[in-house]
DNA sequence: CACGCCTTTGCAATAAAATTGCACAGATCT
DNA sequence: AGATCTGTGCAATTTTATTGCAAAGGCGTG
């Protein structure tokens, strides 16, 4: 994991659709040598996967919201049960167990408010062990970064 | 944007490293026809970009935290100024303006607590117009999805 | 329904890229 | 110094992407 590997990882986090030949030139290696590095980074698991990122405004699910959840009963199994339900929801894009007053934070991507309504119904009904929750609608996304710069 | 386009988008959000020939077979098209669809989806901007996703546990910045921020002065320019500062921080991976008691929510990716300390110093010092903030350390990541399933 | 128009498709040829074997250079350890 | 291991570039080979073209399907209009 030297300077060139880092350079490659940063390049590929920005744009993984470039050809190997192209990237090889940028990092100053021959195509074959560059390819072998990328393969090594993939096999080692440092590069987890290569994916397409859609433009959310051109796709569905334009509305984003954050929800903080306080559970009634804390403890491993209760936490696990709630997370399992939340994670199964398509509208839930991120789900975290956190420290502090709040137990769980969810990030939602919604088509419309009907979907929000239905989701709340499923997640926050009596039996699901939720004491209370706070919804924050996202007004503006100032940054949303999947990359980890090295 | 028909059934096959949606299928392609879902495929590529899962794994964009597959060859065109491979994907063509899966969606039941000839390679050339499939390629033209993908190119169209790219040119139209529905596919924003193709990127490598790193395994965070194998990279740096293992510690994640969420911060909710309440500003002293609300209003467009103050909000904008704070977001600008926050967004410039490498450790800030997501930044949102939200409705409710809280004004801003930040997602952090940290190397260690020293970095957290230094970041708070920069973001939450007097002149930056922050009334108060709450930190939630992320204990467990149950879901973290970049995809928008169609 | 017939017609023209537009889009999408598959095939085949071509161009470009990825992949592999191989020999060599540099670093490290003994 | 010698042995070993890793990484490199070159060249040959295989695989993939790309493009022209003719045909098929869909759609609205007369």
From TrEMBL, chains A, B:
Q: Which GO terms describe its molecular function?
A: sequence-specific DNA binding
Biological process terms from the Gene Ontology for this record are:
regulation of DNA-templated transcription; response to amino acid
Query: Which cellular components does GO assign to this protein?
Result: cytosol
Task: Tell me the keywords, alphabetical order.
Answer: DNA-binding, Transcription, Transcription regulation
Domain HTH asnC-type, first and last residues per copy: 1-77
Q: Does the keyword Transcription regulation feature in the UniProt annotation?
A: yes
- Which InterPro entries does this UniProt record tie to the protein? ArsR-like_HTH, AsnC-type_HTH_dom, Dimeric_a/b-barrel, Tscrpt_reg_AsnC-like, Tscrpt_reg_AsnC/Lrp_C, Tscrpt_reg_HTH_AsnC-type_CS, WH-like_DNA-bd_sf, WH_DNA-bd_sf
> What protein am I looking at?
DNA-binding Lrp family transcriptional regulator
């Amino acid at each position: 994991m030297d300077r060139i590997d880092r350079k490659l990882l940063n390049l590929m986090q920005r744009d993984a659709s470039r050809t190997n030949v192209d990237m090889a030139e940028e990092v100053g290696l021959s195509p074959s040598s560059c390819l072998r590095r990328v393969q090594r980074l993939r096999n080692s698991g440092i590069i987890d996967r290569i994916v397409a990122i859609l433009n959310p405004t051109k796709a569905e699910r334009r509305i984003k919201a954050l929800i903080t959840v306080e559970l009634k009963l804390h403890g491993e199994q209760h936490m696990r049960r709630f997370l399992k339900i939340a994670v199964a929801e398509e509208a839930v894009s991120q789900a975290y167990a956190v420290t502090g007053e709040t137990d769980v934070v969810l990030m939602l991507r919604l088509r419309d408010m009907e979907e929000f309504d239905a989701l709340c119904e499923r997640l926050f009904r009596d039996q699901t062990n939720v004491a209370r929750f706070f919804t924050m609608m996202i007004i503006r996304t100032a940054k949303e970064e999947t990359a980890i710069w090295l």
